[in-house]
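Sequence in, structure out. Go.
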Amino acid sequence: MEAIRQFHLAIPVRDLEEARRFYRDVLGASEGRSTPNFIDFNFYGHHLVLHAAPKDDGRVFHTFRSDFHGEEVQIPHFGMNLDREAWRTLAERIKSHHYSFFDPPHIRLEGKPGEHATMFVCDPSGNALEFKAFRNHDEVFSKVFDPKTKDLFGLEELAVKLDGDE
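Output:
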């Protein structure tokens, strides 16, 4: 059986044009098909579809905060696990477009299995997106460190405060 290599995610947005500008211009996703009701994007090689939400349906954008190892994260959210360079480039791209971080770049799970640099942004419709760069990508699902890679490299330089960010 061949492995699936691409996820497909469809999310609601309040305004397709506003969302198009954010995903294309701020995040750098390339646009595929579109109609007056949806837009397809190549989101780091994955299939992201933005659908125009009903104007009067307040339930579509219900969110809450949940504890994750001593920090609160926005639920629901989606995002990407990136390599260090792509993560840093995206952080700089978001900042250069004067777009605010919902949760600024920082290190999560420091010194623990799954240590990663993370940042959150919300699109104009309030959909939360998280972008991560793991210290060791092989530990994405691990409960314990692999002794061969535990101290291979750190993430400290990735999450340094970006000029002007708090």
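Check: The first strand starts at residue 8 and ends at 13. The two ends are 48 Å apart (CA to CA).
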